[in-house]
Amino acid sequence: MSIESCVIYEKKPLLSVNEAQERIYAALSPLTQSEQIPLKQALGRVLAQTIYAPISLPFARNSAMDGYAFCSKGLSSDAPFTLTQIGAVFAGSPFKGALKEGECVRIFTGGVVPDNADSVIMQEQVDAQNTAIHFPAAIQFGKNIRQIGEDVRAGDPLCLAHKTLSAIDLGFLASAGIEHVTVIRKLNIAYFSTGDELISLGEKLTTGKIYDSNRYSLHGLLQHPNYNVFDGGVIADDRALLKQTLQQAAEKFDVVITTGGASVGEADYVKAVLDECGSVNFWKIAMKPGKPLAFGKIGGCYFFGLPGNPVAVTTTFDIILKPALHYLASATHQKPLLFSAICTTPLKKSRGRQEFQRGILTQTPEGVLEVATSGHQGSHVLSSASAANCYIILDKDVTHVDCGDKVSVLLF
Known about the structure:
Blueprint: H1 17-27, E1 34-38, E2 51-52, E3 62-63, E4 67-70, E5 81-89, E6 103-107, E7 119-122, E8 127-129, E9 132-135, E10 145-146, E11 157-159, H2 167-175, E12 180-184, E13 187-194, E14 198-199, E15 210-211, H3 214-221, E16 227-235, H4 239-252, E17 255-259, H5 270-277, E18 279-283, E19 287-288, E20 294-298, E21 301-306, H6 310-330, E22 338-343, E23 347-348, E24 354-363, E25 369-373, H7 382-387, E26 390-394, E27 400-401, E28 406-411
Parallel strand pairs: 5-6, 13-16, 13-17, 14-15, 17-21, 19-24, 22-25
Antiparallel strand pairs: 1-12, 2-11, 3-10, 4-6, 4-7, 5-9, 8-9, 18-20, 20-21, 22-28, 23-27, 24-25, 24-26, 26-28
């Protein structure tokens, strides 16, 4: 019988989800080794060191719009005035002359503003008659010029160490002429399924066998710019084989993940093997789905033994592994963004474990967030997980939720 489908009386209280997370963070040593890569390959990677601006941005004074640049010295905005256009400034082609009193230049967005000009007036505000440019009264002097260093001054930090680079960051760094960046090396992760009942896709399904879905879920969950991932396949329910496989993997990878075999059945060897060849930090937590979760180390490799039930795999990954792997790869810890929503379906649970039920979050035309159960909540039921877009988080002492009650929601 599965540990997820029966009542187990524990000899001592199980770790809460928060306690398990704290113990994991306390045990992890984030990566420090780095590598240099081209900027175009850096999306989603984590900076190993702060990048400082080699130049000021903007590098030169330039126009914020299409219009006319001039020097306001000697002019008054209280009355109309006329200036003579002596040239045009396009982006990339600075004006080579010097503006004299009574002169202006046509300038386009991004064009370098002549040295002695201090104002740009948009083209829609003037009346251009050949080279005679008529300016109305009440215009504002000293406007529409992007000043040198207005965004960043040379020597200012552009992006701080441990920042995960976004597409905007790539553009920001490129604007300062940064061609290569030094990032934390990728985290090397291996994952395995365990169990004699598992068969691969393409094989004929017979009574007692099931297709291995967990490795496909993990393959998707582990797609990340900061991870190198290895699919180790299925390990049979053989204690010696499991021990040998995990020891060999621990020599090559930073993290090893297994699914199945962490429960209390006679063929569940994960905890026993971890005791033999490594160390167990904890085994089993007060979480549903996902109670039989093992965490420890084999040599210098971190080990996570996930449950075998497919929904428990994805839930423990989202709640426990995902933030832990992020911390390992970036040395930063971000609390999940939770939403408060009105529950539109009644919910039930047993007291004792924090529960992560699958739900569907929607928003009313008035902007109110509402959430409903996505269906059957069994840890083997993938259909309701597939239909869901969030977790409904119910604390350990909650036994029911009525329609209209507010609940905490975590988006997938």
